[in-house]
């Protein structure tokens, strides 16, 4: 194997573009200096476009999970009931955090690989009108589902005043996100997915309606108190020491998104998804999810006649290609190809061609090039550049 | 197109491995400090393996062409006759440098795309016994030929005392090079090809026999005087300020070659060549060279029914894939795929799959995936890891 080559196709952390890597190598600056304020100003404006909001986007030096926890401890008053819609491991994480805070949590569980059905949520809320917040996962990373958040928000608003709180970690920046227009109250993402920056930043946008609820919340919290982030951000500073090098990276990655054009970025992710799915179908390997709710950022594959764990091991050892395994009860049953962030059609073709070699290497009989050709046909059929 | 993506498949400069990039980012050191001597010690030992020699390998802060010039101005005494074997643009460069120094130069020209025939050289030397040095090109980058240097050296030695001087720029480090065993007197390479370092270092190894000739050479030279490099190298230093960051990079790239194993590195290049050629043949596009003398580091392709210039432009603009054009009279007639240095089978598959898309985009009718499958079959047929 070629020494020193890593082909990273997991659903985050994702590869870092060279210019982002360079940006992060800049000399350290003082976190209370003018330069940091300038960074926050540029980043703040660009994040608003990505989130589709007029609100400030809080930046916390933390992993995405801290962002999910921040949403909960800020938005849920002591004694309030909440509903969590669970479509996979990251929906379950919301439940676990709520349980850690002894929050009265209702759960609707969906079969892993299936998406939220907004009308069911509506019906549930009508029967349980004490629910003050509904938590959902935009892209469920563990299954590769993109939940219908726009429809969900609208369905919730029709029957309830509950806050709409969304985990957008593995898709914001890769799929269209219209927080204000869709009526999302809190949406969280992390730096290490479609935003093409190493892990270490949790990004959280909050609606005016949610701010009112948060400001009166007596729940104990300190580092994750969103009001302190907002109040400092309005003065172009941060309550605690920010992760400067990651901010440098984020500024550059947002610049790359802007240069490509957000719509073009979303179109690219959609194309990468369709190329990947067409290839896997042509190779006659079952996909975990159906086309209707497939995520543009990650594809989960559930082989029925070979061992996913051995297959992943071979791809890594022989070709340096990292794809992800499953989580929870699917941990050894599926493998997942990430195609978000710094990923091009050429990268998907490489991944598919190597997957084909890997299949032959583990003894599967396939027609070589058939998956690659299917992906190529998708590319050619739509002429996106 | 994905912003900030460059897929560099030209025959040098080649992509820089991440660990080499990191090595070059180390803080500057004093060029007369102990650290620089330590660098030169490690590099010196590793270069000897790559060149296949017991001799010191001089390192000049300069492009490869300066290395070719150094060979000429050091080895050719005023008034001596030399023979240059020209198989392409880099053979011609030897001629041009000789002409600049008013050296009496004999030339055997081969059709571009064809290799040197040692027996013809032997016959020429027998008829022209005043020739004191024979210049040849190991890999002729402009055509993708690997000349039979081992056979050439042996053929020359049978009939002449002439020095055997070889331009190894686009292959040393990627193909087996046995300077001492084959009887090469001077061999030159550059840092930016199979050695996976940015351009800026010319590397020159010289045989004992050649040193004798060089030491008595009265020709004017200063920066390129090889004896000063050798004498300083024996004291683990350099006559002039060395390119420290490139030395850091070279140390790490030589370490990578050692870790992979030199034979494995050569096998990999051979595999990449065979994958590339099989793919292009399957796509029914003429190769410039035949299999017998094809270079493991670069493949030249001469399309007969589409425009190579337009095709390259499309690959670059739509996919960020850089392949090279031709040189000299072939400049707009061929395109060349580099597969040397930091290049894996997965990288060749990516290149081929993108070439297939490019062919469709310029209106060629091909069976999608057919080139990819041909390359995959080569990979599978030999099981190299």
Topology:
Two copies of one chain form a homodimer.
Chain A (H helix, E strand, L loop, with lengths): L6 E2 L9 H7 L9 H18 L5 E5 L2 H12 L5 E6 L2 H12 L3 E6 L8 H10 L3 E7 L1 E2 L4 E2 L2 H11 L3 E5 L11 H4 L3 E5 L10 E6 L1 H8 L10 H8 L10 H17 L1 H21 L15 E4 L6 H12 L1 E2 L12 E4 L6 H17 L8 H13 L3
Parallel strand pairs in A: 1-12, 3-4, 3-5, 5-8, 8-9
Antiparallel strand pairs in A: 2-10, 6-7, 9-10, 11-13
Helix pairs in contact in A: 1-10, 2-10, 3-4, 5-6, 10-11, 11-13, 11-14, 12-13, 13-14
Q: For the residues shown, what is the average pLDDT of chain A?
A: 96
* Strand adjacency order, main sheet of chain A: 2-10-9-8-5-3-4
The total of helices of chain A stands at: 14
Low-confidence parts of chain A, pLDDT < 50 over ≥5 residues? none
Oligomer: homodimer
Summarize the amount of helix of chain A as a percent range. Answer: 40-55%
Mind describing the biggest β-sheet of chain A?
Answer: 7 strands, mixed
Q: Given the helix and strand composition of chain A, which structural class is it?
A: alpha/beta
Percent of residues in β-strands of chain A: 5-15%
N-to-C SSE string of chain A, H for helix and E for strand: EHHEHEHEHEEEHEHEEHHHHEHEEHH
Please explain how this structure is put together.
The structure is a homodimer of 385-residue chains. Chain A has 385 residues and is α/β, with parallel strands linked by helices. In chain A, the strands form 4 sheets. Chain A has a 7-stranded mixed β-sheet with strand order 2-10-9-8-5-3-4, with helices on both faces. The first copy, chain A, has a two-stranded parallel ribbon with strand order 1-12. A two-stranded antiparallel sheet of chain A has the order 6-7. The mean pLDDT of chain A is 96. Chains A and B meet through helix 1, helix 10, helix 13 and helix 14 of A and helix 1, helix 10, helix 13 and helix 14 of B.
